[in-house]
Amino acid sequence: MAASVGHRYLRLLHGVAPWRNSLLHCENTALSHFLQSLRKLPFRAFSTNARKVHTAPARTLFLLRPLPFLFATGGGYAGYREYEKYRERELEKLGLEIPPKLAGHWEVALYKSVPTRLLSRAWGRLNQVELPHWLRRPVYSLYIWTFGVNMKEAAVEDLHHYRNLSEFFRRKLKPQARPVCGLHSVISPSDGKILNFGQVKNCEVEQVKGVTYSLESFLGPRTSAEDLPFPPATSCSSFRNQLVTREGNELYHCVIYLAPGDYHCFHSPTDWTVSHRRHFPGSLMSVNPGMARWIKELFCHNERVVLTGDWKHGFFSLTAVGATNVGSIRIYFDRDLHTNSPRYSKGSYNDFSFVTHANKEGIPMRKGEHLGEFNLGSTIVLIFEAPKDFNFKLKAGQKIRFGEALGSL
After folding, report:
1. CA 61 to CA 64: how far, in whole Å?
2. DSSP code for 152
3. What sections of 176-326 are H helices per DSSP?
């Protein structure tokens, strides 16, 4: 009995299977005809009582790809940002002060996800490729025209002399091109644009007007009293107090932005002794004034080299901040420094002391002496203590050249 029931069930399945297959074939054929008819539909518009509605053919939906979509949205966002900048400039012309619009956490995270370190290393390799003799003049002339480089100041004006872009970026100047001011105690260490300057208040430093960063985050925590020229701090006020070593002094700062067309070497801003170097690996985001107004603590995110020591009035520091395509920061007397390494731990830093048993003072630097260089252009930040009657001889936004006065007592 069970066998007969099984045979009947098999016959039933054999009878249903052809019918099921034919039904599926009909459904697939109908769906195919429907999609083909949609692809043939032209772009058209039809009216309703409320508004005019546009419809696009279905084939445009099938042609949509992620890459063009990303380009379109990215271009739209960039255009919106440019419009915002234009509107801000127009309002500034009318004398209206505009509060800065800071980037959100997701915008900063999105920007930091761009492989700027890898791109900067690739740019560095490209800069070292030797150019054919016939190609040097047109390539360098285009750069000179784009960024307004004054080659009459260069020690070697002949463009064929520079074998690659790296040599051209690091060109030396004629000795008389940058006279060092002897009347003022602090001079500009480089060519550039003054982004901000003034007194450090509440352990917050202004990278541009209205946008600050933490002094402790920028210089790093005081972790080892033996290796540093000042002991550890435990709070904001004590951190500042440990930097200010003399009663009656205040902390001052100055931010100088080096554009791609500027002279890329930097020099000692005063007579001082360098006792310690701290290197922060990090991002290489752009540090142009627009970005400095948009991203809070931009300088704390980026790779930087902090040199600290003393001058005649106490604590003095010079920090070279890296940027996109400026992963290479060179300090002439520091051969152990290697920037923009392929791998690093997030939030890490490494210390090096120039004070040894053989040299208990550190590295003495004279005002105007060669100190280091960037591969392209970036930012120099000075943080130092001085008496309360120290005065800056500057205006925010002004252009300045190496050797000109920053301030004096």
Report:
1. 5
2. G
3. 215-219, 236-243, 289-294, 298-301
CB hemisphere CA count around 12 (13 angstroms):
6
The catalytic residues are 191, 267, 378
Report the C-alpha gap between 320 and 128 in whole angstroms.
22
Q: Phi, psi at residue 364, to the nearest 5°?
A: -75, 135
Looking at residue 131, the DSSP 8-state letter turns out to be P
Torsion of Cα atoms, 47 then 48 then 54 then 58, to 10°: -110
Q: Are 351 and 227 in contact (CB under 8 A)?
A: yes
Residue from 319, 317, 293, 285 nearest 305 by CA: 319
Gap between the Cα atoms of 286 and 302, Å rounded: 9
- Is the pTM higher than 0.85? no
- 213 beta partners: 205
Asked whether 325 and 375 are in contact (CB, 8 A), the reply is yes
In this prediction, residue 371 has a pLDDT band, given cuts at 50, 70 and 90, of very high
- The runs of H, that is alpha helices, within 40-65 are 58-63
What single string gives the DSSP state of each residue in 72-111? HHHHHHHHHHHHHHHHHHHHHHTT------PPPHHHHHHH
- Per DSSP, the three-state class of 39 is helix
Pairwise CA distance, residues 409 & 389, whole Å: 6
CA distance 166 to 240: 39
For position 28, what pLDDT does the model report? 54
CA 204/CA 297 separation, integer angstroms: 10
37: enclosing H helix or E strand? helix 2-39
